[in-house]
Write a structure and sequence with these properties.
Length: 157
């Protein structure tokens, strides 16, 4: 409870003081580090839950799909396949390993993602994609799959 109060205090840009009224730089920096850690954890939880919720919604619907409707595995929503980069895709999945309660290993996470993003498994998605976005969606899926495939082979070696 004291830590939460200190966190609010430091979030306001203030420093923590010791019992003599002097600035406690060490404690203030500790609290700042804790704030950064918790903020990053919150960001990752939100990112991962949004990704999974968007996939569930996409799979449950039977409406036409555009490129923007797809839950692409990157932090910032891409506007085209050219915005999808292998490093960002791999980072997205590796960050999920840091979530509290996660028990999956990197190879397990990558294998699961490979199954989801395998082009042969996404034929139903492709059939629902609007014609004007079909090439872009196929290219995006291919970029994601290749990034995951390359990483899983890197992990094996």
């Amino acid at each position: 409870l004291a830590l939460l109060g200190e966190m609010q205090y430091v979030r306001m840009g203030l420093s923590i003081h010791d019992h003599r009224g002097r600035v406690d730089k060490e404690r203030t920096e500790f609290v700042r580090a804790e704030i950064r850690r918790r903020d990053e954890q919150d960001r990752l939880l939100k990112q991962w839950s949004t990704y999974n919720a968007r996939w569930r919604a996409l799979c449950a619907a039977d409406t036409p799909v555009t490129f923007a409707d797809i839950a692409w595995p990157v932090s910032n929503a891409p506007s085209s396949a050219q915005d999808l980069h292998s490093d960002d895709i791999v980072k997205f999945f590796l960050e999920s390993l840091q979530l509290p309660g996660n028990t999956a290993s990197e190879p397990d996470t990558l294998r699961s993602a490979l199954l989801r993003w395998h082009p042969d498994k996404l034929t139903i998605l492709f059939s629902r994609t609007v014609a004007s976005d079909l090439d872009s969606v196929r290219e995006g899926v291919s970029i994601v799959f290749r990034a995951l495939h390359a990483r899983i082979h890197y992990v094996k070696d």
